[in-house]
Amino acid sequence: MRRLGTTAPEGRSPGGAAERRLVLVISAVMFVDTMFYAVIAPLLPGLAHELRLSKLSAGMMTASYPIGMLLGSLPGGVLAVRAGPRFTVCTGLALLACSTIAFGFLDTAVALDAARFVEGVGGACSWAGGIAWIAAETPVDRRGAMMGRAVGAAVGGALFGPVIGTIATAIGRPASFSGVAVVAVVLIAQTRGLPARHVSSEQGLGTLARVLGRPRVTAGIWLVALPAIASGMLNVLGPLRLHRFGAPAAVIGGTFLLGSAIETVIAPLVGSLSDRRGRLTPLRYGLAAAAVALCCFTLPGDVALLAGVLVLTATSLGLFWAPAMAMLSDAAEAHRLDQGLAAALMNIAWAAGQILGSGGGGAIAKIAGDALPTTIAAGLCAATLAALAWAGH
């Protein structure tokens, strides 16, 4: 049976050097994409002062990227189906290059918001094309490991993004962001040189709607969205609580740096474990550990203990990404859904989770304190773990 759409015919998986080169280039694309997503943190105080941004305006600038990714996910997935993953990744990189240059040279809040929104749309294309390409060209028994490498690269980009932002504060946005745009152009050339055997499935949103209610697909979407909700919430509440306990900026940054570094290392290992032991094995451990860690968020009374809880929580959430994405890809293949549309579902789940976690978690915490949103998130993890056990998985 021939796999659908973005997948090579059976028996023609690239393997060996070709497979490694594909994963290496796509990982580099995701590294650069998430790097620009994370670049805003050290720039935001200066931009807020320069442009006289309110907290709402600053939050909007931060949220413009995930909003762009959310709205661009379905178009990016359809583009991967119809035009192929290589064209879709190149489109995402082109949007990244243009939006990066715009962010470097424009000097109004609306224009900068628009630049980050376009970059989010570009990210949706890059991720839809890249994940679909890996899923299509990698055998099922190596899919988790390959996706884990891509996820690890993406987390690494998030680690490096603030470094670029710090450099930009020193030498100026035009010079630093022009350099990022050059890297995007180089990656376009590398991507165009990769072999691709795309056969359009001609699937569209109607096909996607028909499989959305299938249990395996729904479970895959939720298991991508759940860690995004928790991480989005902690990205808001964690720094604020550390600051309340007197932690300086370096300690706050170091805490999140350590957590992300651990995620970068474990993502490929967890993906490989899911290939050998099943997708749900690492997910069960992640759900149990995250439920406990989230319940402990408000217990520490000093910086060191709270930082430890945050690192533990980040490590727990790192057990989700690769197996959950591979699980959704496997479910798409089982239901004959094109991998481009499956990747669009992953993008939607991540972006919606980030927006819900950061916005909803922050709003609930403002009204009722930090314990309520973190307890809700812990309850969602525990309920999901129980649901998997009840379903017999």
Draw up the topology in text:
Layout: H1 16-38, H2 40-51, H3 55-83, H4 85-105, H5 109-137, H6 140-171, H7 173-192, H8 205-211, H9 215-244, H10 249-277, H11 280-295, H12 303-317, H13 321-334, H14 339-368, H15 371-390
Helix pairs in contact: 1-4, 1-5, 1-6, 1-7, 2-3, 2-6, 3-4, 3-5, 3-14, 4-5, 4-7, 5-14, 6-7, 6-10, 6-13, 9-12, 9-13, 9-14, 9-15, 10-12, 10-13, 11-12, 11-15, 13-14, 14-15
Folded structure, characterized:
With 393 residues, the protein is mainly alpha-helical. The chain has a single domain, classed as MFS general substrate transporter like domains (Growth Hormone, Chain: A), CATH 1.20.1250.20. The protein has 15 helices and no strands. Helix 1 runs antiparallel to helix 5, helix 11 packs antiparallel against helix 15 and helix 14 crosses helix 15. It is globular. The N terminus is likely disordered.
Indicate the radius of gyration in whole angstroms. Answer: 20 Å
Poorly predicted spans: 1-5, 7-14
Number of domains: 1
CATH class: Mainly Alpha
Main beta sheet strand tally, sense and closure: none
Considering the protein shown, what is the CATH homologous superfamily? MFS general substrate transporter like domains
In percent terms, what proportion of residues is strand? Answer: under 5%
On the 0 to 100 scale, the average pLDDT is: 86
Q: Give the CA-CA distance, first to last residue.
A: 27 Å
